[in-house]
Structures are given as structure tokens and as C-alpha cells.
Amino acid sequence: MEWSYSYSSWLVEISDSGNASIQFYVLVDTLDMYMEEDLDITLNGGSSWFYQGFIDAFSNHIRSSVENAITNKIVESASKLDHFLGGLPKEINVDRVAAMNVTFVNDPRFISSSVEFDIDGLFIPSDKTAPQSDINFGDTKLAPALGSSSNMLWISLDEDVFNSVSALYFKAGLLQHLVDKVPDQFLLNTASWRFLIPRLYRKYPNKDMLLNISAISPPSVRINVGRIDTTVDLDVIVIVLGSDDIVPVACISLSVAVSGRASVSGNNLVGEVELNYFSFDLKWSDIGKLHTGIVQSVMRIVLKNLFVPYVNSYLGQGFPLPIIKGFVIRDAYILTSYSSIIVSSDVSFIEPMNRSGIKHVLGSVSEDPAVTMLFH
């Protein structure tokens, strides 16, 4: 920086000029507002050797003034950030059943070029506040530091997030589907099984049928490097439509393994699965023993042509990522690491954030975050 001064009167005229270098090293603890600093001011040019003595003599006073100014700015900025974070929604509604709990569980962590937030991230009933979860999800494993990326936003979602939503939908009784239409509708009539399952046709001649497919436990999601796997246990109950009633005639137990992939659509994380393999067992039957080959062929058709498309229709809608209103994700790509899905993207500002109607959630939250957000 340049320095200069001039003074003139009827008796004397004085002026001088030169340049100065200022080096200020500071280490700030933003939580305790503690500061360590080292200030060095060096004057050059003119009679700087003379003025340097005054600078050195008042160095403590100068250092104190600079420190107070910086501390005041930090306190002011921290207060604004705290006010802003306090006004953010505490949950994001997905549908009439589920909402994501986006309550902060730790203080923000400031890194050299980014700020990191940990939020609870688990799904809760949409009509309730965020209680302590009564489901044991185990230890949460966070993604490693990702500060070297040039992307503006990183979101790490632990597999506990997905297991919490599957447990929630299972508890709500939504993981079941009644099949009354198939590509070949004749298959849902006892006449089509006249020669393969004679006893079925003899007891219920030319009657329409239904398939009641329901999960008997929450689907289990496991995420590893480069893959997402899910296992779900199902009961498939064969129902005959009688003249005045419905009659369950057989129940087949299935253990189904699917693999999936995730992508981003808008601000939603969406997915798609495909069938890997399945095993089955005849749980009970009122129409005699069923031929293993027949059951296997029918179940494969049901799973590939009915179950998987039905699941994908819901996964295609996805659920919202924890993005501040007014921003939209762009140029996103997905990474899968041990127990986590990581979304890396840039963001664009589309409209001012509207804070009206913000819903605050009371109650305790999990101590371990299931979602980590890193802003650059």
C-alpha cells in the first residue's frame, strides 16, 4: 500500500511519501472467539526509518484495534448465520406418510474452503414431530472429507436413511399390492390352471383370481462401493373370487434380491431396480401340492412383469434432497461408497427463499447424523 502526507503553512511546507507492507497472520477459534495473531507493518521510502519507530511503539494498540474489528465481524457473521439456520425448515415432507427430519445434530464445521452440516436425515411420520427413533439402525458411518472437489455441493446419505423410510412405509402398511390385472389376463382365472393345478379348477371352476403381494418385514438396503443391494421378504397369497366372498387358497413365501442405481432428477434422488434372484417356499395350500417348476416360472413372471415395474414407478418419483428452497441442483453425479450414497453437484439460484410457513420440529434427535452436507 502507498502512504503520503503533506503539511504547509506560511512558515514551512513538509511532505513525504513511500509504501508500506502489512502482514497479518491470524488463527481464529470461531466457537470460543479466541484469536492468535501476528501483525507486521514495514514502512519504506522517504523518512520511513523515522516513522517506523512510532509504528513499533504503538504496535500493540494497532494489533488490539485490528483484533477487535475482526472479532466484531466474526460475531456479527456468526449471529447472521445462526439466525439464518434457525429459520430453515426442520423437516421436508415427501408424501402424506413420510417426511425427512433435517434437524441439525452438530454445529457447522468450517473448513478452509467449505462449510459442513450434519443433519439427522432419517424419515419420520409426516404428521408428527421428530421423536427419538425406536429403531436401532446401528452406528452411522460418514463419508470421508471431500474438500478437494470443485463441485459446489456434496451430500452424503447413509444407508440408514433408506432403511428408515422402508421401515416407516412397512409400519404404515403400505408395502403391499393387490394384483388384479396382468398382461395376460387369462392367467388370473382358474381355467388357465385346469391341467396344471387340477384341484384348483375342480374346487373353483372358471373363477377369477387375485394376487396379494405384501412385505413381511422392512426391506433391507445395503450400499457398497459401486453397488446398491436390497433384500425383501414377501408373501404372495393366491385369492379366488367366489360368488359371495373371496377365498385365499395358497401362500408362497419369497425372498427377493434386487440391485439398484440412483440418479438425480430436479432436486429429487430417484432410483431404479432390477431383479437379481429369488427363492421361494410353499407356506400353505388348500389346493394340494404345487409343482416346483410351475411355481418358479409363475413367480418369475410376477416379479419381473409386475413387482419390479411397480417398485420402479415409486422409485422414479424419488424423495427430495435436503436443498434450501430457491436453489436447484445441476450437473449432479452419484458415487457409492461403503454404506453411503454421495451426491456431488453444482447448484443454481432460482428464487428468493420464502420463510413463511416454516414448520419447526420439537423433541430429541439421533446423536449420529445420517446425512452430511458439504458446501463449497
TrEMBL record:
<protein>
    <submittedName>
        <fullName>Putative BPI/LBP family protein</fullName>
    </submittedName>
</protein>
<feature type="domain" description="Lipid-binding serum glycoprotein C-terminal">
    <location>
        <begin position="147"/>
        <end position="345"/>
    </location>
</feature>
<dbReference type="GO" id="GO:0008289">
    <property type="term" value="F:lipid binding"/>
</dbReference>
<dbReference type="InterPro" id="IPR045897">
    <property type="entry name" value="BPI/LBP_pln"/>
</dbReference>
<dbReference type="InterPro" id="IPR001124">
    <property type="entry name" value="Lipid-bd_serum_glycop_C"/>
</dbReference>
<dbReference type="InterPro" id="IPR017943">
    <property type="entry name" value="Bactericidal_perm-incr_a/b_dom"/>
</dbReference>
<dbReference type="Pfam" id="PF02886">
    <property type="entry name" value="LBP_BPI_CETP_C"/>
</dbReference>
